[in-house]
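Could you show me just one protein sequence together with its fold in token form as a worked example?
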Amino acid sequence: MHYKARYDQRHPKISESGEAALINSYEPSKCPYCGSESFIRKGLDPNGIRRYRCSSCGQTFRPTTGTIFDSRKIPISEWMEYCLNIFRYVSLNADLWNNRNALSTSKYWLEKLFLTLQGSQNDILLDDTVWLDETYYAILMRDREKKEDGNFVRGPSRNQICIGVATDKKHTVCLLEGYGKPSQRSSYKCFKDHIRPGSLLIHDKQTTHKKLVEKLSLTSKAYASKDLKGLTDSENPLDPVNRIQVLLKMFLNAHNGFNRDDLQGYLDLYAFVINPPAEQLEKVEKIIKMVFENPKSLRYRDQFGLNQASESTVCK
């Protein structure tokens, strides 16, 4: 009974959560079924959430229809708290313990977060002075390739995923560049739309960024890696990007064991965490706005391949 009371306290009924005002503050721009912009208000549902009726297709919908909040079983406030935990580098295991959720539920919410943030770095344009460097993150042990002698391949290889990180100290971009050592082509493809032409690029002396520098007419200031060894952070000219990479590793390690196919989702999430606004509650407000203004849906059974009978037994 104690645990049930604790669960009920943290998971109030939607009708008791007071979220109707939040949902009703977002007016749909079009019908989620046919895309028509002609619709009228059609009263409230039992939870006090406004309904609309499309004048073109006749379908009835709510502001949540077609979004990740469609068909939810818990209040949006629970998802907001989940976001705050993730922004604080809380692992999925710690979050499910705090919120009394199943691991599958936490993973489902994380996939919703990835879906919401998909493409969120597309419009980030760095300018003035830009620091750029690559770092690596290992694939899972079970997937690593071995040499003929049975030992793992060392250094940049298929066992390492290359992540490009660039920052102008105001905004940051984190993108996948593929497996092993990056090429001029991969670096250019990743960052050509994220660095303003004519900017100053501070980077290492690898040839990886040569095409990027030439095509964007960047002023290049490169440093040899061997010359940077032993320098303090304040003396290291690449410290702005190095510091971000250290924090990125901490963030990824908080979710150690995740499917590497989801790595770009984690990078989008990390970029969202470290980019403005700085206040975490403002970040939550921003992401809620993204949910309603750019609707995307993900059904639980589509994510985990569950049938309707088993889906009804899972708390979401």
User: Anything to note?
Assistant: The chain is about 35% helix and 15% strand.
